[in-house]
Amino acid sequence: MTSPDKKSGEAYWKATLSLLTVILILWFVVSFGFGIILQPALDSIHLGGYPLGFWFAQQGSIYVFLILIFWYAARMNKIDREHDVHED
Amino acid sequence: MDLKTLTFVVVGLSFALYIGVAIWARAGSTSDFYVAGGGVHPVVNGMATAADWMSAASFISMAGLIAFLGYGGSVYLMGWTGGYVLLAVLLAPYLRKFGKFTVPQFIGDRYYSNGARLVAVICLIFISFTYVAGQMRGVGIVFSRFLEVDIVTGLLVGMGLVFFYAVLGGMKGVTYTQVAQYCVLIFAYMVPAIFISLNLTGNVFPQLGLGASVATGEPFLAKLDMVVHDLGFQEYTSGNKSMIDVIAITMALMAGTAGLPHVIVRFFTVPKVKDARSSAGWALVFISILYTTAPAVGAMARYNLHATMTPGVLTGETFAEGNGLSYESRPEWMKRWEATKLIKFEDKNGDGRIQYYNDKSKDAEFNAKVEAAGWKGNELTVDRDIMVLANPEIAKLPDWVIALVAAGGIAAALSTAAGLLLVISSAISHDLMKGILTPDLSEKSELLAGRLAAAVAVGVAGYLGYNPPGFVAQVVAFAFGLACASLFPTILLGIFSKTMNKEGAIAGMLSGLIFTFGYILYFKGIFITPMAENIPANWLFGISPEGIGTVGALLNMVVAFTVAKFTAPCPEHIQHLVEDIRTPRGAGAATH
């Protein structure tokens, strides 16, 4: 029999891992996806004077990385409280 | 005041600032020495991490690399920022919860083995020394160019300064001097970038200027593509490396960043797990100010360089008679930099003018025009490092901006060197001595040992800076590849796999390390002659030595899981330890 404590620990870890998965998918898509693999195709679209693929590789991916980290930090704080494992 | 005196004054003032901060923040305990007492605010820590991270390579070399690689330079931009996402979500909060002083200590405790700890110490020392040699070299170059002192004096001054605040102040002194150094370096980077962006595109923000238009109304990047194309170079906004190699290099730089011990250890200094998460974000905020500006600096410096050397290229009259810059009337900055041999002119066709173009172009039409114009080969060699250092001079900015760039370059090199020296000294005093060799060391003797180790490390770093083992850039590729293939996967498995055991971890770490080390040595031969030519046809899966860390990391994990499957399972109490580091509650200050 698993203790309630252990069960809630598992639920917390599951919630953490699903957030992680979403973050890492987005991380991969903007850099390896838009910046590298799809760069030749995206370059036909322009963002101001920037070809879009080039923009993702040299600017856009960095901005998205920033948003991802702060979003992760905020979501994790919420998950911590929901599972009652937050710091005091 | 002439430029040299002004540079001395600006650099001198910045040194006085660092020394003042170091005296104010000196270390009193081992906790101060290793993790700055564990009470650093996440925003302050973010700023210190940014200075720690942005080395002489970021400040001096990166924009120049991008200038000559164009789109190909994106691997550095994405690689060296994307690593912070990995760090923030996969490593930093958990290592902070674990609450110890050093990276090898985590590996030793998690894998219940001093052997694993020792392997981690070896990886750490190797990674950090290769990296620190590059920094000391950067200090030497800046000193010799801007202050016209010889490279040894430059090195000695740099070593003396780092010695003073790293040895006295430990992590606490280093943290607060890094904050000061960040301010100096970012100011020094942004001022010329803003001026140049304003000049070329009328836009204050270089990030927007790069996507804006030049005076004639054409988009800047389209114009730059045309300019480099007309001179026979690869178009700026497209790459020339194979996609698999670009992916492997980017991944190796990302995972390498997340696995660099001097970066990881910065997250041990914040008070809470929560702070470790947000602090990685703050670090990236401060880093991206420079990293989103660098592409603009690179592209605009490249444009200015061609516009200076071949003025006609802007109006499509590349091959017009008398178009190349006359060597006699070359600008002042070129004369100054010729003395350092970072820019060289050789008049191959004897016309007294500079022909700067790609003489290895495979475009038959272009080559025919070159032939008709009587050009006899490219006559100018430009070292990429001067793209940042000479940038203010090329753009005709005031002297105080040039002096500022010198101070910024030194700040970037010193802050990174200090961070590296600290992880080396703590690996020796805390892991090797206190942890493995002499466990009954008192706190006071350990602190002394830490200071002695830092002092020795400064000396070795200075020596390596004077006699760098091979070309510095090659050596830095080494550091990232090894961090990516050895430390990163091992720490990652330690957190995300409860069943990974010590046999698996050690076997994985060693195979990742030896494979990557061997591959780089095979093609680059840092200490030996390369055993094969470093060309794509010879590479494994078409992956260059810069990107091989990615394969090394995969190999590390495959070996680790295979060995773990056939050896004794991970003990119960370690599995509980892993469960414990996964939840934030109960994170105290970092302890022994």
From TrEMBL, chain A:
InterPro entries tied to this protein: Na_symporter_ssu (IPR019886)
One of the Pfam families matching this protein, by short name: DUF4212
Protein name, entry field: DUF4212 domain-containing protein
Keyword Transmembrane helix: yes
Transmembrane spans: 12-38, 50-73
Keywords: Membrane, Transmembrane, Transmembrane helix
Residue ranges annotated for the Sodium symporter small subunit domain, each copy included: 10-86
